[in-house]
C-alpha cells in the first residue's frame, strides 16, 4: 500500500463510531446493528472504519471479522493495546479485509506511565517491540500515544520517532481527555512534523475528545498544521462528552474549502441517514440544536429569518439541506413567524388564499401561536376551515 504524503490535498476520514463511540456508557450495539452501520459507512466513503477492539470480547472479535469480510472500499482497522496477544488477536480479526490496518496504542503521559509502571526507556522499548511485531503482520500500522496532549513534548517526539522507525505508517495524536486547545493542537502536529526524523513518510492523524466542546475546532486546527487523517464518530458519539463529530468536520471542510482546501471522499448526502441510524441503534438522541444533523439545524421560526429564507436561502443557511440528505429547509410555524412564511406554508399545503382571507387566517394563527409552541399542518388547515366558516 502506498503511503500518501502529508502534502496531499485530501483528508482521510477515520470513523471510530463502532469502537470509541460504542465505548460510550449505554451505547452498546448488537452484531447486526454494527453490520448495518459499517455497511453505510463503507458506502458513504469513509476511508478507514475502526470496527472494534478484537481482544475485548468474543462479540467484538466476531464483529470486526465480519466487517473485514464485508467492506468493499474502506480499510478495516482493529484496536490493540501494546501487547503481542492483543496485536495477534487484532490481526486474526482483520486479516481477510481488502485493506487491513492494525491500530496499536499505549498511554505515554506521566499519568499513564505510572499506571503501566514503565519508565521512559522501558516504554520506548515496548513501543519498538510492539510496533515491529504489528508491522511484521500487516503493512498498514497505526500507532497512537494515548494522552499525547499531556505528554512532555520532548518525550512525545522520542516515542513518535520510535514508532516510525519500527514501521508505523500512520501516527495518531489523541487528545484523550479533551484537554487541548486549537492553537496547541496545531502546534503539536507542526512540532512533530518538524522535529521527528521520518515524519514526512507517515500520515499524521488527529483524534479529539469533546470535554471542553473543542473537538471539532482542535481537529481542524491539526489539519491546518498538516494532519491528513481525522478520527471521528457519527453524531460525536463517544465516552464522556464524545469525540469529534464526523458530520461537523466533513461539512466544515466542504463549506470552508476556501480556508481549508482539503477534500474528503464522503458522500455528504448520506450524512442524515447515518446520523439517524447511529442515534436509533445507540439509543442516544441527537440534541435539537446539534450542528449539521440536529432537528433545528435547518429549521427557521422567526419572521425575519423565514422571510429571508423565502427570498434567498443563503441569507440564513450556509449549507444546503440536500447536501446532507434532507429534502428541504423546515419553516417551523410558531409565534415568531410572519405572513410571508404563512402564505408559503399554506401554498405548500395546497391552499392559495386571497389577501383578505390570508389576513384573517394570520390573525387566528397568531392567537393560536401564543397558546401553542408549534403549529402543525393540521392546525393550519383547521384555521382555514374556521375562517371560511365564519366568513
Ligand atoms: O482517546 C484515545 O486516546 C483513544 C486511543 C485508543 C486512540 O481512543
Ligand atoms: Zn478516543
Automatic annotation (TrEMBL):
GO cellular component: cytosol
Associated pathway: Amino-acid biosynthesis; L-leucine biosynthesis; L-leucine from 3-methyl-2-oxobutanoate: step 1/4
Domain Pyruvate carboxyltransferase, residue spans: 11-272
Keywords assigned by UniProt, alphabetized: Acyltransferase, Amino-acid biosynthesis, Branched-chain amino acid biosynthesis, Cytoplasm, Leucine biosynthesis, Manganese, Metal-binding, Transferase
Keyword check for Metal-binding: yes
Record note on quaternary structure: Homodimer.
Lineage, highest ranks first: Bacteria, Pseudomonadati, Pseudomonadota, Alphaproteobacteria, Rhodobacterales
Binding residues for Mn(2+): 20, 207, 209, 243
Enzyme Commission code(s) on record: 2.3.3.13
Molecular-function annotations in GO: 2-isopropylmalate synthase activity; acetyl-CoA C-acetyltransferase activity; manganese ion binding
Cofactor requirement: Mn(2+)
Reactions catalysed according to its record: 3-methyl-2-oxobutanoate + acetyl-CoA + H2O = (2S)-2-isopropylmalate + CoA + H(+)
Function text: Catalyzes the condensation of the acetyl group of acetyl-CoA with 3-methyl-2-oxobutanoate (2-ketoisovalerate) to form 3-carboxy-3-hydroxy-4-methylpentanoate (2-isopropylmalate).
Keyword Cytoplasm: yes
Gene name of this polypeptide: leuA
The name this protein goes by in its record: 2-isopropylmalate synthase
Family: Belongs to the alpha-IPM synthase/homocitrate synthase family. LeuA type 1 subfamily.
